[in-house]
Recover the amino acids of this structure.
């Protein structure tokens, strides 16, 4: 039994296994994203889940996980009281300040 569990190849997963593993990792990333400060960017981890599911299940499942990731990112920003446009505005203000100095 232990041999079977240690020989999981993430490049060749069945559709149900890929969705289950992708959902488990996605849940872990969302929980970590919720517990860490807003300034810590966990976007690459969301991307890893999207790539894993897309590779194993096709573009439709990848698109579904992408949309869910976008919604979660927007909700997390609203929970922290910061939207994505606010961070973009701060970045552009900092760039303008550097140019004028």
């Amino acid at each position: 039994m232990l041999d079977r569990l240690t020989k999981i190849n993430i490049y060749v997963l069945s559709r149900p296994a890929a969705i289950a593993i992708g959902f488990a990792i996605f849940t872990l990333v969302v929980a970590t994203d919720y517990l860490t400060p807003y300034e810590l960017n966990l976007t690459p981890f969301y991307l890893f889940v999207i790539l894993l599911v897309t590779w194993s299940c096709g573009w439709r499942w990848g698109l579904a996980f992408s949309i869910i990731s976008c919604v979660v990112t927007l909700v997390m920003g609203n929970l922290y009281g910061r939207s994505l446009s606010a961070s973009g505005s701060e970045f552009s203000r900092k760039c303008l300040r550097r140019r004028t100095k």
Remarks:
- The chain has five helices and no strands.
- The longest helix spans residues 15-35.
- The mean pLDDT is 80.
